[in-house]
Amino acid sequence: MRENSHTSPFASRRGLLFGSAAAGALLATGCTSNESNDDEDTGKQPANAADKPGKKVTIGFAGPQADHGWLNAINEQGKRRAKEYEDVTLVSTEGSNDTAQQIGQIETLINKKVDVLVILPADGKALTRVGLKAMRAGIPVVNLDRIFNSPQAYRCWIGGDNYGMGLNAGRYIGEQLKNKKNAKVVELAGLDNLELTGERTKGFDDALKNYPNIKKVARQAAEFTVESGQEKMSALLQAESSFDALWNHDDDQGVGADRAIKQAGRDEFLMVGGAGSKRVMDAIKADNSVIKATVLYPPTMAASAIDLARALGQGKGVSGLAELEIPASMTLYSAVVTKDNVDEYLPIGFN
Predict the structure, then answer these.
(1) H or E element at residue 258
(2) What's the predicted TM-score (pTM) here?
(3) How high is the pLDDT of residue 326?
(4) Which end of the chain is more exposed for a tag (fewer CB within 10 A), N or C?
(5) Which CATH number belongs to the domain containing residue 257 in this structure?
(6) Are 37 and 62 in a shared domain?
(7) What Gene Ontology terms describe where this protein resides (cellular component) (predicted)?
(8) What total of structural domains would you count in the chain?
(9) Which range of residues forms the domain containing residue 141?
């Protein structure tokens, strides 16, 4: 839920969740499991029964500390997907938000001579060097979400679309308010020192340009935590006596925002979340609160990263494409989940 931006068109069907032909083909093909899979387990399509076990592959998996619901879901998705393959051995690190510690963990995986590395760096810029080291050692790197500074540091990047999150949140809100005169919206952003926050805000602002009747009247930056969400939402509510819509960048900090909203007794606006937590999807389905939608930043990207790593280790491409090699990059789509399609997406909602 936390990284670099790539623009994508607006839609909200599960079939467009991965947003590219390559990713869509990947889910149905030779990069998928040799075993059948319950869709509710991973939120992805069942593995292709025709895909036979191949060359044994050892995948090193290095992610940041799972101190956030989305990050924990990343770890769970990756590990669960690896278990579906009898030809995959997964070696995971404990995960750390300390750059030096994560570099050390990845160097240990390099020294173990794993076949492929999947890395979600705590800091893409700071960990570029260790990505380069792995690639130079002949270990392909699947760079997950937070992108390294150099394309030489990874073989394939897969991740979410931060600009697209903001764009689709703005478009959804714009369509809901397009007939309302002098509509007002507010924004509860994430950490302003992260590039991704600026990308989400830019996408949101760009979408609103198409709705001249709507004005963004306030913005607060929180810190992706429950506590910060509650504090900053309280400030927004105090500053604005009424408004028509709220876009909250992150469903985890949205827990605190929801508390502040309930404590203030406010319900005159609609709320759009970000990332796709199960809590928010349940609220959307119940349709008895201000929460009406959430824009996905799917943690299923970790499961697809395992698919890609296995394909790299076995020298496979992506079935359904003419190319012999897997793509260099894959951007997931930021679908909008509403009460009309929430049942489709509930299996990938994270806690």
Answers:
(1) helix 251-264
(2) 0.82
(3) 92
(4) C
(5) 3.40.50.2300
(6) yes
(7) cell envelope
(8) 2
(9) 18-160+298-332
Residue 9 lies in a domain: no
Start-to-end Cα distance in the chain: 13
Is residue 34 located within the same domain as residue 142? yes
Q: Give the relative orientation of helices 69-83 and 251-264 as an angle to the nearest 10 degrees.
A: 140
The CB-based long-range contact list for 262-270 (8 Å cut-off, 24+ gap) reads 263/234, 264/234, 264/237, 266/237, 266/290, 268/242, 268/243, 268/244, 269/242, 269/243, 269/244, 269/245, 270/173, 270/176, 270/244, 270/245, 270/246
127 found inside a domain: yes
Per-residue confidence (pLDDT) for residue 48, from 0 to 100: 47
If asked whether residues 96 and 206 sit together in one domain, one would say no
Is residue 343 assigned to a domain? no
Per-residue pLDDT, 178: 98
Cα–Cα dist 114/61, whole Å: 10
Q: What is the pLDDT of residues 183-232, one digit of tens each?
A: 999 999 999 988 899 999 999 999 999 999 999 999 999 999 999 999 99
Tens of pLDDT, residue by residue over 167-185, are 999 999 999 999 999 999 9
Measuring CA to CA, how many Å separate 39 from each of 18, 46, 47, 266?
16, 6, 9, 38
Per-residue tokens: 144: 């997950």
pLDDT of 257 reads 98
Same domain, 103 and 135: yes
What CA–CA distance (Å, rounded) separates 331 from 208? 23
